[in-house]
Design brief:
single chain, 120 residues, 3 helices, alpha+beta, six-stranded antiparallel sheet, SH3 type barrels
Length: 120
């Protein structure tokens, strides 16, 4: 099951304008009550930390060590996307492409960045 706080590699194409594109990590931020439904899953998009020179209050920088990802990553909490469950599936195994997990303590940082982004 896709769970809040888990990180998956997904293909975000097609995209438009300034949207993050390509195959990249996404962090699930929707509740597990939503994630288990046949609806969409809300995520924030990650990017290679080397591409983000400055830290902003709407970004959360995490290390590969704490997430299990191959690279240090910045989750761009202003880049919210709702994705169909099919984007998470490995075409061969038909299982989600789980790449890592964000510790609960760091999810609090994500929640703070989301509140700033959404002004709640």
């Amino acid at each position: 099951m896709i769970k809040r706080g888990h990180i998956y590699f997904v293909n975000l194409n097609p995209t438009h304008g300034h949207e993050q594109t390509g195959y990249r990590p996404v962090l699930v931020v929707s509740s597990d009550a939503i994630n288990c439904q046949p609806l969409v899953v809300t995520v924030v998009v990650g990017t290679d930390a080397r591409n983000v020179q400055r830290d902003y209050p709407t970004n959360v920088r995490v290390t590969a060590n704490e997430t299990g990802l191959p690279l240090d990553t910045v989750f761009l909490c202003f880049q919210l996307r709702s994705l169909d469950h099919s984007r998470f599936m490995n075409p061969v195994t038909q299982q989600p492409n789980l790449a890592g997990k964000l510790p609960e303590s760091r999810m609090a940082d994500v929640d703070k960045a989301l509140r700033m982004t959404l002004m709640i």
